[in-house]
Amino acid sequence: MNDEIKKRTQETAKKLWTGGIKLDPPYLTWKEFDKDLANDLSMFITGNLYSRTVLTLPERQMAACAMLAALGASDELRLHVNAALNVGCDPKKLAEVFFQLAPYGGMPLVNKALEVFKEVLKGRGEWEAFKSTAK
Fold it and tell me: How far is CA 68 from CA 2, 7, 19, 132, in A?
């Protein structure tokens, strides 16, 4: 069972974290404090939760981006916006998710999320293409 979870963790992590801008995942920080716990957390989050098939990876990333934006967690949002784009999330839909924060969290969170989103798109070399398709 452990080998199966490790395999799912590696496969899912590769899809999420490979590509786009270079960002260090939180796993690297966790590992500095406790390698065994870092592995357990990674296998639970990436190997068990993120590899479930009830939601697709793009749907799961859209949800993660919405929640992180609502929390104002810019560092984690940066990582998950990049991952969302890596797994094929439509950038226009991501922008719409961030605008959806307005009635629930207020414009300061919308602005913060859009700034992070723009930064990631610029880092990936995708900002100009995105801008040219904006309404």
Answer: 30, 27, 21, 27
